[in-house]
UniProtKB/TrEMBL annotation:
Domain of life: Eukaryota
Basic and acidic residues bias spans: 1047-1057
Localization (cell): Cytoplasm; Nucleus
Integrator complex subunit 3 N-terminal domain: residues covered: 59-465
UniProt record similarity statement: Belongs to the Integrator subunit 3 family.
Protein's job: Component of the integrator complex, a multiprotein complex that terminates RNA polymerase II (Pol II) transcription in the promoter-proximal region of genes. The integrator complex provides a quality checkpoint during transcription elongation by driving premature transcription termination of transcripts that are unfavorably configured for transcriptional elongation: the complex terminates transcription by (1) catalyzing dephosphorylation of the C-terminal domain (CTD) of Pol II subunit Polr2A/Rbp1 and Spt5, and (2) degrading the exiting nascent RNA transcript via endonuclease activity.
Ints3-like C-terminal domain boundaries: 601-1006
Renumbered residue ranges of the record's region Disordered: 530-551, 932-951, 1008-1063
Keyword Nucleus: yes
Protein name per the record: SOSS complex subunit A homolog
Amino acid sequence: MTNERPITSRLFTTSVIEGRVELDEKYDKAYNSVISLTRGLSEEESHHALNKALDDRKVHDELCLGLLVSILADSSIASRHYHDLTLVSRDSLKVVTETLIHQIIGERFSRLSESTRRQLLWLVRELVKTGINNVEGVVWCLLRQIAGGDVSAKNVWLAESLVDILRENRPWLDKFPVIVASVTYTYLRILEDHSGPQFAGLRQKEVTFVVGLLRERFQDCLMIGRDLVRLLQNIAKIQEIEAFWRDLIHNPTSLCPGFTGILQLLQTRTSRRFFVVRLTPEMEKKIVFLCTDVKFGMQKRYQEWFQRQYLNTPESQTLRCDLIRFIIGCIHPSNEVLCSDIIPRWAVIGWLLSSCTSPVATANSKLALFYDWLLYNTETDNIMNIEPGILVMYHSMRPHPVLTTSLLDFICRIIPNFHPPLADKIRAGVHNSLRQILEKRVVQSLEPLFDNRHMDVELRKLIRETFPEFCANSVMGEVKHDDFVAPVSSQSVTTMDLLAETGLDFGASAVNSDSEVNNSNHIGGMEEAMFSEDEEEPPAQKPPPPPVAKIKVEENPVTPPSPVAEMEDVKPKVNDVNSVEEKVDLSKHLEYLENDMKTIILDLQNEKDTKQRCDLLQKLCDLIFSDDLDQMETVNLAYCLCHLLSDELTPGTSLLPQDISAESIQESLGNPLYVIFDNLITLPEDDHRRQPILQLLVEMHKTTYQVGYHFLYFLKASNIKSDKVQENNESSISTYRDLCKAAGLKDFAAFVIRDLRFLGEDDPRVLSWIIPDIYNNFSKQTRGNAELLQLVLERLDSSQLHDLVCMVLQGSLQMFDNSSFASILEKSLQWETVEQLFLWQLAKAHEIPVDCCLSVMPKLKFTSHSALVSNTHGEALSNILMMLRRESPTGILLRTLLLREFRMEDPTVVTILQYWVQRYEDKMANLINEVVNNKPQPSPNKRKRNQSTKASAVPLDQVLSHLNHLRTACGQTTFFALETMQDILQTAQNQCSETQKKKYGDLFALIEEEEEEEPAPEPQRKPKPSRGRKPKGRKKQESESEEESSEKEVKRVQKEHQGKKRA
């Protein structure tokens, strides 16, 4: 069959078992569409053909995808098709970046062919150079594909290629603090893997790069938190890292003025994004499946497969730390999973610890397990991060006592030895961890663990010295070893010998091997099973039910720079009750509130119905109106409200309805948080009850940044649903200003920009919707503000830009004016290409004249075919040229252009000179004559010239350089044959030094021919009428035949005179 489907994939490797997939069909269709349109055409013809086919949105996406596939599949046409892609894309390459993030890199990277991988890295390098929007997400996904513990050629090549791209584009990298921190975290981690002599060159390159980031961007790296210290410890013997380590310990302010020392880092919890970035999407998917879907007792074959796939080499042992930190920090099971027969986290971590074959990796894995214990803070840290450590020791006492004793020995010795100057604080942190474990009933008591008589005598002594208050005769009461409570038994899991399967009898009863397998994550529960040394013991008293834990997949409010693999099984459920730790945390704040207010907060904590929550908040507002709050009450009430309204503050979807209408906007205001806003704006400004509500909002704003942009959204949305828009709008303005004043901030612009920046990160759609009101209502602070403008432009897409352009043209929006544009333009030179292009679209809509751009012209640089795009300002120059093209030449414009530094590789000045000469020949000659004659003479008298003349004077050498460039680049000899230009050249030659005459000899050679034409006036008259026939403002419409005849006549006259000269 001629139309038989290809059996191989263009991008992915295939085999008998794993052949083509649905993506291949989609990519082939898109690729064939592009090839059918461009086959046999030149580059320019291909571009026109592609543009002509872009009328339909679906066609646009398909063509962009097809060009992407062709770039990845064929290196010979990659450069041409990338150029086509940048020209035809109308969504800032959104289709390309999303396809790379979600499909090619995120899902199928391991299946990419060798050639495709190389083309992918080439494409990423070009995207980064160009500064395409969302390319940071692509880089973040590539970072994830650098697998820890993997020193295969493919993985090492990827690490080296990516570090080369990032080194070449440091200015781009520095714009994304989260990417800086993620890159630092990644390369600090893989430096441990590249310790072999065969990696010496790569290791040095990585060390130089990462130490540079640490020293130059340490403020950005601080967001990593305590795990930054852990990674630095693992590679502290490297000379450059050791030097940085000394500064970190002894001279912290040299790294960052506000940095107080290593304690600050250790007290900062590491965000889950850094744990995620160190697992490939495939690893993450499998480890999440193991922890959330596999029944306890059925895990053997999954663990064996994982071990063969990822942990089967000596180098791969370092991966165990990454897995343990990910399980502890990212997988927080819901109540449903905790109460089910799913394998608990401690069992997976116990398997990772017991199967490790490297002593160094084992020690590092233990540190990874207990790392959050060291400076544990009950206010900021999470009980779920320390729970696995205590449970893996508790459940290993009988089936695997060596593991338990080694962990106990480790936790005792780490306190004085981790960092001796902080020994007291570390001891307090570990003690806080143990107290929290007991308070939350993770285990009933620590005596069975700390006072185990089968334990080594020396270890028991060490434990008693380290944790005296948690051993026998402590405040918890004496509990015998034989009385410790076993895990809750599950009736749904069959009997299995887990010790034989995994080497660890996690959860199995040592007394009765036929008993049910136990699977609880916590000690305690219904129908507790007991076991002890004696065969018969009375049943222990039934303990309280186990704590209910709420999963927290993302506790850090900052949005990750790019999408991560979905973790559907471990996402929080909206209807889950609040965790015990949350209630305990709130109780500390409730102590400062009045009883009535405390009752409302507790009701709000338990209430799930939205309408009832709104009613409770209204009652709270009424209570605040009747009773003024003091500062302490306000702060604690704000904390409670932010905590209880966290789901409303971060709903996970856009605040703006999909279909915008008055009705849908009205429905969006049903958020309980908005009850507080509504009470505030309905009160008159002189009402004394307004101040307590306003102060409460200030404290909530300090606690949770989302409050600010929720308030802005409410103010605009409430205006839309209101009939008295103008009256309410004025009220909104004063209310938002009052919020800034109440916060004690004088810089209102910074206050607004801060809220809008968070809004742009969390909900760009609302930002573009609300920004016109910001500019109109706060014009004094926002109009012409370059920081705000960039914030808006970096979040816009083409549709949202079109909305803004329409509003500007309608006269309902003004974002800047003529007086502020020059300053904005100068600052925009450091922006991304797309942001600059969007700025110029808005400048056209605002009808900014070219005069506003002239002051920036000398600062604009350009080099044709430059390899360093960051050193050029092509976006600004090309748009200024388009503006000049629509202007007729004037003295000011010409002087500005000629004052621009002459560089042969910069075609900017010669381009517009040629354009004007073709259309305004005589006028240009007269203007150049004025410029040359205004040149100050090189004599003492030049100091007597007035200031305006000096300011506008162009050095003669500069004028001649540009004129010579015009002659050589464009062949404008006809223009130089004009009588005025002949006089100019003669004047210039008389003023030049001998060096200059020699330098511009070819230019001055045109004068000699004209001088010898004087004895023969008749031939000389012939070209003059052709020049004279052109009017002063000759336009492009003049016929081509006249221009051609004029040129021929001049050439004929020149030949005649050359003949006379030879005669």
